[in-house]
TrEMBL record:
<keyword id="KW-0012">Acyltransferase</keyword>
<protein>
    <submittedName>
        <fullName>GCN5-related protein N-acetyltransferase</fullName>
    </submittedName>
</protein>
<dbReference type="InterPro" id="IPR045039">
    <property type="entry name" value="NSI-like"/>
</dbReference>
<dbReference type="Pfam" id="PF00583">
    <property type="entry name" value="Acetyltransf_1"/>
</dbReference>
<keyword id="KW-0808">Transferase</keyword>
<dbReference type="GO" id="GO:0008080">
    <property type="term" value="F:N-acetyltransferase activity"/>
</dbReference>
<dbReference type="InterPro" id="IPR000182">
    <property type="entry name" value="GNAT_dom"/>
</dbReference>
<feature type="domain" description="N-acetyltransferase">
    <location>
        <begin position="16"/>
        <end position="167"/>
    </location>
</feature>
<dbReference type="InterPro" id="IPR016181">
    <property type="entry name" value="Acyl_CoA_acyltransferase"/>
</dbReference>
<dbReference type="GO" id="GO:0005737">
    <property type="term" value="C:cytoplasm"/>
</dbReference>
Length: 184
């Protein structure tokens, strides 16, 4: 186990390992996102987008029953500003939901945020209860200073635009809740 790999955790159904994603995981991440995108819970990306952001991702894997490992969950931490990050693309295979895997992934992403010196983490979600249990609170408006807002508005990233609640992405908004966690 590497220094950046979380120790295996037991969940109902077996051991789960959370580790940094590797380029070979991009297709598995995309496959995890597809059902959520079809249900309009997550936004689908082009395959190139997963490869370009692979270093932001962690994955959850379990024994595949044939001596190998299978990716059953993923999540990403995107740095938005010096003190601010966003949890993105948190997804768990439907057959592995309600086993604590989402919790393990989120804990790893929050640990990454702390290691990077971030003090706040944003998310855009339909899973309000899940994130509330982890200390996130629903927000209105952009909780940044005007000069930071002016810099962030220059980003071409749709996630940053969603954070800022910019009108040009309103047509793409899925109707989810904007939430923020202040890290202790």
């Amino acid at each position: 186990m590497s220094e950046t790999e979380a120790p295996p955790s037991r969940t109902p159904g077996g051991a789960v390992t959370i580790r940094p994603a590797l380029p070979r995981d991009a297709r598995a991440i995309r496959d995890l996102v597809i059902p959520y995108a079809q249900a309009r819970i997550l936004l689908a990306k082009e395959m190139i987008g997963y490869y370009e952001a692979i270093q932001e991702f962690v994955v959850a894997e379990v024994d595949d029953g044939a001596g190998g490992r299978r990716v059953v969950g993923c999540g990403a931490l995107h740095v938005m500003w010096s003190d601010l990050g966003e949890v993105r693309t948190l997804a768990v295979d439907g057959g592995f939901r309600s086993r604590g895997i989402g919790h393990l992934l989120l804990m790893e992403l929050l640990a990454r945020a702390r290691a990077l010196g971030l003090s706040r983490v944003f998310c855009l979600t339909f899973e309000v209860e899940f994130f509330t249990r982890h200390g996130f609170e629903a927000i209105e408006g952009a909780p940044v200073e005007p000069e930071v807002f002016a810099e962030l508005v220059r980003s071409h990233d749709d996630g940053v635009a969603e954070f800022l609640d910019l009108a040009h992405v309103k047509q793409n908004t899925l109707g989810n809740t904007r939430m923020l966690l202040t890290l202790a």
